[in-house]
Amino acid sequence: TPILEKGDNEFIMGVEISKKSSLKRTLTAYSVDNYLTVVAKKRTLQTTIYGVAGALIFFNFCMFLLYRKSYLVYYIIYSSATLFILMVGSWHIPLYDVRLWNFALFLSSTASVMLSVTGLQIRDVMPKVASFLSGSCIALTLIYLAVAVLPLPSELLYFSGLTICAIAVLAALIRMMQGYVPAFFFALGWSILIAGFALNYLSSFTDE
User: Is 161 left (phi over 0), alpha (psi -120 to 50) or beta?
Assistant: First the structure.
């Protein structure tokens, strides 16, 4: 929560907390005018991103009601879980229990892989790859349960999910080289997502 301090030079301190093994706090001082400008720009961008994501989720839900395609269900689950991760990671909604974070990671990873299997028709063209990806989802489920029950770090689930998603990206690239046009958009979206998560995680090790 911003803290307003009044004096000869009125200013506002904004506090941001980054997720790490231990919490890290970054303090930034703004003049009143600069603070209001920064907040307005951030809120406009955030509202746009969340609004577009919500609209896409609702659109695909309507498409599922019309066509009853399984890949639309996977897309809805994947997008909803990823949106939750983004909002928690940006501290726009509170995380009351780390188990919710782990569950969202699990849903996002497994749904994205199953989306590639069904949406890219990998099961028909590359049955061995499809079987491997399906088996990876089972393995990720076991890892999720192990992290939930045993004193294991959440990073195990995090990196396992990224690895499986990276394999799904590779499968999309293969389908793209085979001439399947939708695979290009799958590979592009997956690559941006993985790069964003990786940079977000690595940034927690840097001191500002």
Answer: alpha
